Amino acid sequence: MGNSYAEEEDKTMKGLITVCPECGAKTELREITIEFERKGIRATMSGIPAMVCLNCGDQYIPGDISGDVIDIVSSAIDQLESLLRRAEARRRELLPRIAVTSPECLVLVLA
Ligand SMILES: [Zn+2]
């Protein structure tokens, strides 16, 4: 029971999808960017590790990482939502006086 590099590597690669379930080609560990839209707020997260199929491009994010990403994005957006709603209410009071309005509501994009 050593702590060799090979064992460590084996441990970190465990549970990763190395063969694409869609097309059977090999996957490679890459970093990907995902865009989210929730409650009218858009967010983008980059640097997410994922197994990417070299043939069809399908992406498989390890379950624990994907859970963390979803937790981060949803808690950030949930906290912003109430503030955004307050700002939207104030905006609506002024709306009739604004000559030209483009978006239907406030749009927040977190890059
Ligand atoms: Zn594939």
Describe the model.
This protein has 111 residues and is of the alpha+beta class. The chain is 37% helix and 27% strand. It has helices at residues 5-13, 63-94, and strands at 27-38, 41-53, 59-60, 108-110. A hairpin with a 5-residue loop joins strand 2 and strand 3 (59-60). It is elongated and about 60 Å long. It starts with a helix and ends with a strand. 6% of the residues are buried. Zinc ion binds next to loops.
Q: Could you give the distance between the termini?
A: 45 Å
* Succession of helices and strands: HEEEHE
Radius of gyration: 21 Å
The average pLDDT score comes to 85
What is the overall silhouette? elongated
Tags for this model:
111 residues, alpha+beta, four-stranded mixed β-sheet, elongated, binds zinc ion
A few lines on this structure:
With 111 residues, this protein is α+β, with helices and mostly antiparallel strands. The protein is 37% helix and 27% strand. Residues 20, 22-23, 25, 53, 55-56, 58 line the site of zinc ion.
Question: What is the fold's blueprint, element by element?
Answer:
Layout: H1 5-13, E1 27-38, E2 41-53, E3 59-60, H2 63-94, E4 108-110
Parallel strand pairs: 2-4
Antiparallel strand pairs: 1-2, 2-3
The site of zinc ion has 8 residues, from loops.
